[in-house]
Structure formats: structure tokens, C-alpha cells
Design a protein that fits this description.
- Helix content is about 70%, strand content about 0%.
- With about 325 residues, the protein is mainly alpha-helical.
- It has one domain.
- The chain has a two-stranded antiparallel sheet.
- The model has no long low-confidence stretch (mean pLDDT about 90).
């Protein structure tokens, strides 16, 4: 309980510190034509969530091979909140950190990542790609008030609940609880109106660590489908945004406002808080239904998730037609 209270406090404290001194540290996010905000707002408020992760990981005596690479990725991300870093540099740091952590996880959880530990030639690169991809998906989806914070509270709360029910390593369960609490502490400064943004330091961290949980705890395909359902709105929005950009030959490193949540806010004028709550509601419903279908195994989960993705893709298509 003490650790959870501390985590919530650190999430709150990190945000308020950046609110107070962010502009003096060069952390102000100046609006541009691709922004979803209209006033200069400090970013990097997720530094409190990073502090939560590091303190909780060391308190719980988790492996240095887990938390030290995550700290490195988040530190580079925090630097990226202050100065412009090349996408290639970020990718190199993320890739090296991923190789260390995934290697450690496959050693610690040999039955994890859908049994990929038994086939390192295939499993290791797939697991590493999934971690890097999820870290960047979470980062790309952090674009409006409250979205990343609400998603973090729910995603890690669902991980903690599921891990507790399944009898997973108690330290990992508690770590998920602390990250959920850290996001909850950050939220009052970012929702319903943002006085500070989470920044890359928080969003990349949350996506990276979430993916590590999926790799560590997915012993079967049914497990994998269950855990990715906890973050399905993010994965789906990124997929329906990425595919048209690939077809059009658009540079994937160029900033844009083509995510569904961005169109709903910027082109259709819906308030940030409503879209963030909508995504959180969909996230929770999809996850709870998938949990309910768990006894039916991966076929039941797959049918449900395909139906949810089909509905989401249809909604995205309707939104884009309205935009045009």
C-alpha cells in the first residue's frame, strides 16, 4: 500500500514540477499546424512515472537487466522532449535496450512470449519487434489531453488484476499496480484540460513496459490475444492510420494529424476529454469481454477481437469520409 501511495504521489509530483519549471528547461511544446493544442504547454510530465518505475523496480528487487535498459530508453526519450533527436538514434537505443530486456525475459520466463523461448531464432526477433513497435505506438497515440494517462491506468490495472488471478510473480503484479497508480497521479494535470503533457519520457516508457509484460506472461496464443486486448484501441488506431500512409508513400517519420483520435478532435471539433473517455471505455469493454471469453481459448478470443477490429475499422473509415 505504501508503494502504491508513493507511486501516485510521484506521478503527481513529476507533473507539477514540469508545470512549474518546464519552460525554464526548454520543455515547452510550441503549437504548430500538426499539433492538437493551441497554447504552449510543457511536456515531459511523465518523468514522475519514470521515477515510479525505477523506484518500484528497485524496491521489488527486479533484475537490473529489466529496469536499467528501460531507464536508458526513457532518459533518451526525456532528452527528446527537450531537443530534437533523429528517429534513427531513438530506434537504435530502443533496439539495444529491447535485445537486453527480451533476452533476460526469455531466460527468466522460458515459457513466455507464446513459447518463443523454445525457438530463439524466430521468437527473439519477433518479441523484440513487438516491444519496439508497442513503445512507438503508445508514443504516437499520446496526442490529446488525457488519452495516454487514462489508457495507462486501465492497461496496467488490467495487467495487475489478470496477473494476480493467474498467480504470476507477485513483484511483477505489484509493479503493474504502481505504474497504474503513477498514471493516476499524473492525470489531474493532464485531464480534462492539459496543463502538462506526458511527453516521450512517459509514453515510450509505458508502451515499452506493457510489451515486456506481454512477452513475459504470454505462454499461449490465447494469452497473447488476451493481453493485447488491453491496448487494442491504440493498436487498431495506429494500424488504420499506418496502412493508408504506406500506400501513399508517406514518410513514417514525418509528423501528422491522421490518427482517428486526431481527426475527431481537430477536424470534427469534439473536445479532447470526450475522445479520451471514449477510447478508455472501448479499451475496458474490449478487455473485459476478452477476459470473459478466456475459457473458450484463442478461437473465442480471436472471433471477438476480429469483430471489434472490424467495427473499429468501419468507424475509422466513416470518420475519414466525414473529414473529406
Amino acid at each position: 500500500m505504501i508503494l502504491l501511495i508513493l507511486s501516485c504521489f510521484l506521478g503527481f509530483l513529476g507533473a507539477i514540477i514540469v508545470v512549474w519549471i518546464g519552460k525554464y528547461l526548454g520543455l515547452d511544446d510550441i503549437p504548430n499546424p500538426r499539433s492538437s493544442h493551441s497554447l504552449p504547454t510543457p511536456k515531459g510530465g511523465g518523468v514522475g512515472i519514470l521515477a515510479t518505475f525505477v523506484i518500484a523496480a528497485t524496491w521489488l528487487e527486479l533484475s537490473t537487466a529489466l529496469w536499467l535498459p528501460v531507464l536508458a530508453v526513457s532518459s533518451v526519450s526525456f532528452l527528446g522532449d527537450r531537443v530534437k533527436l533523429s528517429p534513427s538514434l531513438r530506434l537504435v537505443v530502443q533496439s539495444v535496450a529491447t535485445m537486453v530486456t527480451v533476452g533476460s525475459l526469455i531466460w527468466t520466463f522460458p515459457q513466455g512470449s507464446c513459447g518463443f523461448g523454445a525457438n530463439l531464432l524466430v521468437g527473439f526477433p519477433l518479441a523484440a519487434f513487438f516491444v519496439v513497435a508497442t513503445a512507438n505506438v503508445y508514443n504516437f497515440m499520446d496526442g490529446i489531453d488525457g488519452l495516454a494517462g487514462i489508457t495507462g491506468v486501465l492497461a496496467f490495472g488490467l495487467l495487475a488484476f489478470t496477473g494476480g488471478v493467474r498467480g504470476e510473480n507477485p513483484s511483477w503484479v505489484v509493479l503493474a499496480m504502481t505504474l497504474s497508480a503513477g498514471c493516476a497521479g499524473f492525470l489531474p494535470w493532464n485531464f480534462p484540460r492539459a496543463r502538462v503533457f506526458m511527453g516521450d519520457v512517459g509514453s515510450v516508457l509505458l508502451g515499452f513496459v506493457f510489451a515486456l509484460y506481454v512477452v513475459a506472461w504470454s505462454r499461449t496464443l490465447a494469452d497473447f490475444l488476451l493481453f493485447i486486448s488491453f491496448l487494442l484501441p491504440f493498436y487498431l488506431d495506429e494500424a488504420v492510420t499506418l496502412l493508408p500512409r504506406l500506400r501513399e508513400g508517406d514518410s513514417l517519420t514525418r509528423p501528422h494529424r491522421r490518427h482517428v483520435y486526431q481527426i475527431l478532435v481537430n477536424q470534427m471539433g469534439i473536445p479532447h476529454w470526450r475522445i479520451s473517455l471514449l477510447y478508455g471505455t472501448v479499451q475496458l469493454v474490449v478487455a473485459l469481454v476478452t477476459l470473459f471469453l478466456r475459457p473458450w481459448g484463442w478461437p473465442g478470443e480471436a472471433v471477438w477481437l476480429l469483430a471489434a477490429c472490424g467495427a473499429g475499422a468501419g468507424l475509422a473509415s466513416w470518420v475519414r469520409r466525414r473529414e473529406r
